Amino acid sequence: MKYRRPNQFTVSILLVLLSACSQPLTLEQQIISTIRIMEEKIEAGDRRPFMKHIAADFTAQNGTMNREQVRALMIMQLNRYKRLQAQLFPIRVSSTGDDSAKAVFRALVTGGPGWIPESGQIYEFETHWTLTDGEWLLQNTNWNPDPFDQAL
Is 26-151 assigned to CATH 3.40.50.20? Predict the structure, then answer.
């Protein structure tokens, strides 16, 4: 088989495609990507990779919980339910400063011993993020249960 040298048009198309792939992610894309990674890790029961995205001085529930308390809550839930899943509804992200952002979303969280969940709840989340050493870290969050009739 004889090697054919690519023509200039093909090379140009490849360069355009490569440059399009290397565009930096928007603020919204970065935050949503981090939230999705955290969702994937918690569903897989990978608590350490999940906690990697939480700031050292993290607080939750209006300052009544710290990072270690949220870690303990997560371990308790993972031990209680063999299968923990979340269905995230549209995530709305807004900038709150140069290195900070806010993301608000609803999530249907279900858990159970097998494939069919035995319990579930819809929560409204408000999350605050800070950019630290090039990574978005969860700085603060509050969540409240949403009654099913209001959520639908």
Answer: no
Whose tokens are 């978005």? That residue is: 136
Question: Can you give the C-alpha Rg of the chain in angstroms?
Answer: 20
Q: Is 120 helix (H, G, I), strand (E, B) or coil?
A: strand
Helix (H, G, I), strand (E, B) or coil at 12: helix
Beta-bridged to residue 120, according to DSSP, are 110
Q: pTM for the complete prediction?
A: 0.79
| In the chain, domain spans | 26-151
Query: Quick count: other Cβ atoms within 10 Å of Cβ 114?
Result: 8
124, two tokens: 């409204």
Cα(132)–Cα(149) distance, integer angstroms? 39
Write the pLDDT tens digit of every residue in 51-101.
999 999 999 999 999 999 999 999 998 888 878 889 999 999 999 999 999
